[in-house]
Write a structure and sequence with these properties.
The longest helix has 19 residues. The chain is built from two helices and 14 strands, in the order H-E-E-E-E-E-E-E-E-E-E-E-E-E-E-H. Strand 10 and strand 11 form a beta hairpin. The strands form two sheets. An eight-stranded antiparallel sheet has the order 2-3-4-6-13-8-11-10, with no helix packed on it. It is α+β, with helices and mostly antiparallel strands. The protein folds into two domains: 39 residues; 184 residues, no CATH class.
């Protein structure tokens, strides 16, 4: 009986304490410029498998791949990174980014496709819109803003909002949004025209808390049976 009580006590801190967890981000190894443009890469899924990640949509001539270029996932000056928060423990390690440059006022549909389902993916947003002039991403699914702040190019630090529906509006907006559910693709349009703005996607690197609950409960049940 003592063994069962000990294991039951272990479950409480595991399930009761919320803390940021690690995320894995997509890295890219190929790019096609033009209208539409494309990016090709991969990402380690939450189950440890490698999945393909591809993008097709607006011109991507200022995108970065193979960890070459400027690292944008940081705060401006001494400001903290807007890419970590109560859920997300880490920003991307590589500087890879899908950058939309010079999109028109007649927006294409931009689509990120995963070769296998991903659960609750996040998107790091870099410089959506500019101070005094907004730009919008209109998604085909709902999302939550997890964090925002003063990013690489400066700004007020509160430049992201969801004014209605599935629209993300940015005035020099930097931060993290999350899509709840299981996805094989995410689509959006970007308008009006903006000189430069970028993003990348990631997934949680550890099992969801519900998985941990099943694991701990199973251990406790086996211990109780053994004692009986």
């Amino acid at each position: 009986m003592k063994k069962f009580l000990l294991l039951a006590g272990i479950a409480a801190p595991v399930l009761g304490v919320a803390s940021p967890v690690g995320f894995r981000y997509a890295t890219y190894f190929a790019m096609t410029t033009g209208q539409p443009g494309s990016m090709t890469g991969q990402m380690i899924n939450s189950d440890g498998t490698t999945i393909g990640v591809s993008y097709s949509g607006h011109v991507v001539s200022d995108s970065q791949f193979n960890n070459t270029g400027t690292y944008y996932y940081t705060g401006f000056g001494a400001n903290p990174s807007p890419y970590t928060n109560a859920l997300v423990a880490n920003a991307p390690a590589a500087c890879d980014i899908i950058a939309l440059a010079g999109q028109t006022n007649a927006p294409l549909t931009n689509t990120i496709t995963f070769s296998a389902p991903v659960v609750d993916p996040i998107m790091d947003i870099v410089s959506l819109g500019q101070q005094g002039q907004s730009s919008n991403y209109d998604f085909n699914t709902s999302f939550t803003i997890l964090s925002q702040g003063t990013g690489y190019f400066g700004g007020a630090g509160n430049g992201l909002s969801n004014p209605f529906g599935n629209r993300l509006t940015g005035f020099e907006g930097d931060g993290v949004i999350q899509f709840k559910g299981t996805f094989t693709s995410i689509s959006f349009t970007a308008s009006p025209a903006e000189f430069w703005g970028g993003f990348n996607v990631g997934v949680q690197a550890v099992p969801e808390p519900a998985t941990l609950l099943v694991l701990v409960s199973g251990i406790a049940f086996l211990a109780r049976r053994r004692k009986a």
